[in-house]
Amino acid sequence: ERLHVPEVMFQPTIAGFDQEGIHKYADVSIKKCDQDIRKELYKNIILAGGSTMFGKMGSRVEKEIKALAPSGTPVAHQAPPERKNSAWIGGSIVASLSSFMPMFVTKAEYKEGKDI
Is the pLDDT of residue 6 over 60? Predict the structure, then answer.
């Protein structure tokens, strides 16, 4: 049976996974935030990562989250062109922070089997 990969992100059960789709996790996360900022969060959903590069992913995310959001709540997304590499970009920024340096594990520490 042929599956449409992006559809699995919204309906994981079609691939045998017993979990919710990404739109439900996003909605639950927003609803766990302070009520005063929820409208702003619904209007500022940011797509990041290579799996968001599928065609019409943004409009599908909006459609699915709009169905879960409180009635009349505006839902919008942003899809930066560099989103395919967002995790790497974020990681490089964090790694360059001096406050992150104490958390580095050197090659020697790794080889020693240091608890990470």
Answer: yes
DSSP letter assigned to residue 70: P
Q: Taking Cα atoms as reference points, which of 77, 46, 60 lies closest to residue 11?
A: 60
Q: How far apart are CA 5 and CA 69, in angstroms?
A: 25
Q: How far is CA 14 from the centre of its chain?
A: 21
In eight-state DSSP terms, residue 45 is E
Pairwise CA distance, residues 110 & 90, whole Å: 23
* pTM of the complete model beyond 0.90: no
Position 43 scores a pLDDT of 97
| Each residue's pLDDT tens digit, 68-86 | 999 999 999 999 999 999 9
Q: Which residues contact 22 (CB under 8 A, 6 or more apart)?
A: 9, 10, 61
